[in-house]
Amino acid sequence: MKQRFISSVPIILQLALTTLGLPGQSYPGKPQIIRCRSLEKETFSCWWKPGSDGGLPNNYTLFYSKDSEEKIYECPDYLTSGPNSCYFDKNHTNPWTTYIITVMATNEIGSNSSDPQHVDVTSIVQPDAPVNLSLETNTYANLSYLWAKWSPPPLADASSNSHMYHYELRLKPEEKEEWQTISVGMQTHYEVSSLKAGVKYVVQVRCMLDLGEWSEWSSERSIQIPKERLPPEKPIIIKCRSPEKETFTCWWKPASAGGLLTKHTLLYSKEGEEKVYECPDYKTAGPNSCYFDKKHTSFWTIYNITVRATNEMGSNVSDPHYVDVTYIVQPDPPVNITLELKKSIKRKPYLVLTWSPPPQADVRSGWLTLEYELRLKPEEGEEWETIFVGQQTQCKMFSLNPGKRYIVQIHCKPDHHGLWSEWSPEMYIEIPTDFRVKDMVVWIIVGVLSSLICLIMSWIMIMKGYRMMAFILPPVPGPKIKGIDTHLLETGKSEELLSALGCHGFPPTSDCEELLIEYLEVEDSEDQQLMPSHDTPSKNTKIILKETDSDSGRGSCDSPSLLPVKCRESRSLPSTLQTQDVRAKEKKGGKGSWDTRCAASTSEQKTLPCESKKSCTWLAAQLPSNQAAMFAYHSTVEAFKITLNTTNVNTSPILVGNEESHQSLYPIAETVYDDLEKINEMEYSKTDQTTVQVRQNEHSNKSPFLNPKLMDYVEVHKVRQDEEPTLLLKHKENNEKTKKCTVPGTSKEYTKVSTVVDHHILVLLPDQRSQSTPVSQEPVAETSQNPQQSQAEKNTSYSTTTPSDSRRDTSGSDYMDPSSFMPSFK
Amino acid sequence: MALARAVGRAGERAGSGRAGAHPDIPRPDIPRPDAAALSAGAAAALALLWLLVCAPGDAGCHPLTVADLFDRVIRHSGRIHSLSTALYAELEKHFPPRDNELGRPARKCHTSGMLTPNGKEYAQKIPREELTHVILKLLQAWKEPLSHFNQHIEHHQELPDDSLSKAKQISNMVHELKTGVEKVTEKMQSMGIISNSLNGMASSEDTGLSISNEANMMSDSDFIHCFRRDSNKVQSYLKILKCRIMPENSC
């Protein structure tokens, strides 16, 4: 009940107070015992820091208990040690006891207690600082001593003045930071020796009981150690200088004279003279200097100058200073420095600096010639740029950075001897930027315009597409290039172009091989006697003939310039080995012998060019070296051709077509494993009546030379013995295939078998090597213009196929790897 | 004959010219003293050669004004001074003074006895003829001692070749300078700028013998020290003389 009452009282009070409008009144804050300290181990005091008073007057009560007993006592003396303290006198101090001390603050609202403090009197002993420090100096035998005296710290209890203190003394020269500490011992006086004369020293002492801590340092006392009464030290001549090569002045540093009045005298003698003079003028050039006027200044003679310092104890003479006035000329800095910005014709600003020699220097007489050096730097710069300008008194500075503030200084020196003057005061010049801004505008305009042009150019590029490419990368001239199709370049897609150019350099990878198509020539029955000879190679050997690179050297044999020769020769010498097309035409005449030969050579093409020496030599003579491979190729094709030879009439139109278009040849030979047998079958069945229908795209007929959309392959419908073989010419559906029929405007020779589908359809590809067609075929060429005409009535058996396998078709005709047959001629 | 000798000397110096001697006749920027000291030889000789060749009355080259001549001899004397300063430093390095004092006194130059203006006012006061004579006298007084000195220091093994060639160069240049000053004097006399009443060199040559004996007694560095001082005297007198005669000419 009582408890409730007690607890409710403050609340009620608080409420009352808040309603009364006195906020902030609360419990007192927690007081904190700062320290307890014993001065002499017999008494001690404790001090505390009051907490917040809660807005009300507080009462502080100190309670203590001893560790030996349970009883709680209150502080015996709140007054002796000052406010917020408690003094425990001798009677209340027991050095062998630990005191537990708490301070409680109380106000109207409540009370608050500090944390208890455990106090062991012996561990809190710290005396007060000694007092009454006094200093004296004494001098014996030119040495100064310092005599210090002090008293032990006073105690509250005056009766107990029998404590033994240890003392320490420290001292330092007044201007220095580091103290020198001396352990004194028990005595209350000390004598310090080895002091510097003329220095003011500061001294402090402190004390300590045999246990506890050192007291604070006593208050400072200082004393001036008297100066010695000594003769002065050596004065030092700093320098001599002639500002205008007519008079000169010497300066010296006075000797330290220990506070005594010292007089300095300058004495000089001239070279070759014994007489010693005294300085003529001590005043003009200021203290500690001597001015030699014109009368007293001689040139080309050496002055021997000394300075004597004298006081009542004696005198001292400086080291001699030898001076030849000619060589101590150091002029004043140049004056009247003007900085002016001027514009050149090109409106570029340049800086014109002008200055005058120092007024004292009489340069007009020729007696003194000055040389100048100037230095400048941007205001924020670090390094000066120094420019030696010689005897001129003006200088033009070009190539200063606009918009920068420059600092300019000039100094001068006599020519050939003497010293540089001080630098003149800093001069500032700001190089304006407006000159530059105009330039900037021009450049910005130029930049904008050029970027605009670039934009337009690139836009055109995008619009025109690959035409630009052809424009930028025109076909490489030369015979190698003749086979290349410019139309391919122009109209073809890039892949195509690349394939025409690129596969040449490719390694004969398997990928390439995949794309190859066997070249087949359908031959007529007349030559069936040849079949056995090339039966084996065509069947079993996989002969890979890749697309001839139209711009390769090999291709050049197809160029019309070369071919007619070959072809003519072939005509005159039918027995000579020729390109397949030629031979196909002229098979009638004496075909047998060379056919055999070449068939044989074909069979062995990988190892040997041919068996017949004759044909080889002919080739060597006829073809350039790089055409050797071509030969192999031709012969190979020929071999196949023989196997599949149609009648001459049948092939001729195609050949003619090839001839007319100077087109790269795409003879592809590929072994068709299973299907080849079929082909051979067909070959053997000479008696079969075959009808070849060649249907050409109308479009291709229109412009035989330029039309890129020629028919791509001929579809040959093979009719078995009982059926009539049909040859259908089909055009590729779209141009979406990378391989367009690039032969411009020609009828085609469908001599390549692209693929054989369904075991009875043979896809033929057009032979695009027009060059290989001999000139002699021209008469037939006219007939070939019309493919309808050329569709032969002859009996040739073909496998027909649908052009479904476009990939193979396309790729096969794209590639011909020359390297695959190159080795055969090595 | 003298001309021929001068040519030979000039060629010789040009051949052995050190430090890429830049021919700096009308140079806008004055060469720095050290550079000038090194490159003095060939250029100076050529300048003097031109001066000699283009003496008055010589057709084919522009008549040189007295101011030009003065400029040349002043420049020449300046180079001699630079060379001697460099040589003095080298000698001091190799033969440090015994008493180890930098600017020792009491070295008596053999030309100390000459009465020469020792300050600006004096040099401006004395008659032009006399000043000219003083210059010539000084140069004359050094001709012989310098060639003696050359022969003498060739025996110093420890001296670098550079110092030897400097000494030789100085000797030659003093000859040339004297010739140059004589030319200027002649020209001035012919133009009536100064009177012809030069006291003549005879008297100074009399004393020349005695003072060259005196010169032989000096130490090497003292000798060059003295010469350096006199070369500076000559240069200063030449400048004063020029500005007295032609005050308008960059004076």
TrEMBL record, chain A:
Location of this chain's protein in the cell:
Membrane
- Regions that span the bilayer: 440-462
Residue span, Fibronectin type-III domain: 30-128, 129-228, 231-332, 333-434
Task: Name it.
Answer: Prolactin receptor
Query: InterPro entries this protein is in?
Result: FN3_dom, FN3_sf, Growth/epo_recpt_lig-bind, Ig-like_fold, Long_hematopoietin_rcpt_CS, Type-I_Cytokine_Rcpt
Family affiliation: Belongs to the type I cytokine receptor family. Type 1 subfamily.
Q: Which PANTHER family match?
A: CYTOKINE RECEPTOR, PROLACTIN RECEPTOR
Natural source organism: Zonotrichia albicollis (White-throated sparrow)
Provide the residue span(s) of the region labelled Disordered. Answer: 568-597, 765-826
Purpose of the protein: This is a receptor for the anterior pituitary hormone prolactin.
According to its UniProt entry, one GO biological process term is: positive regulation of cell population proliferation
First and last residue of the signal peptide: 1-21
Gene3D superfamilies hit by this protein: Immunoglobulins
How does the protein associate with the membrane?
Single-pass type I membrane protein
Tell me which UniProt keywords the record has, alphabetically: Disulfide bond, Glycoprotein, Membrane, Metal-binding, Receptor, Repeat, Signal, Transmembrane, Transmembrane helix, Zinc
- List the biased-composition ranges (Polar residues): 572-581, 768-795
Q: What is known of its domains?
A: The box 1 motif is required for JAK interaction and/or activation. The WSXWS motif appears to be necessary for proper protein folding and thereby efficient intracellular transport and cell-surface receptor binding.
| MF-aspect GO terms | cytokine binding; metal ion binding; peptide hormone binding; prolactin receptor activity
Q: Name one GO cellular component term.
A: receptor complex
Automatic annotation (TrEMBL), chain B:
Show the segment(s) annotated as Disordered: 1-32
Alphabetically ordered keywords of this record: Hormone, Secreted
Its main localization is secreted
Alphabetical GO CC annotations of the entry are:
extracellular space
- Compartment(s) of residence: Secreted
GO biological process assignments: positive regulation of receptor signaling pathway via JAK-STAT; response to nutrient levels
| Cited InterPro entries | 4_helix_cytokine-like_core (IPR009079), Somatotropin/Prolactin (IPR001400), Somatotropin_CS (IPR018116)
Question: Could you cite one Gene Ontology molecular function of this protein?
Answer: hormone activity
UniProt similarity note: Belongs to the somatotropin/prolactin family.
Q: What is this protein called?
A: Prolactin
Name the species this protein comes from: Zonotrichia albicollis
User: Gene encoding this polypeptide?
Assistant: LOC102070454
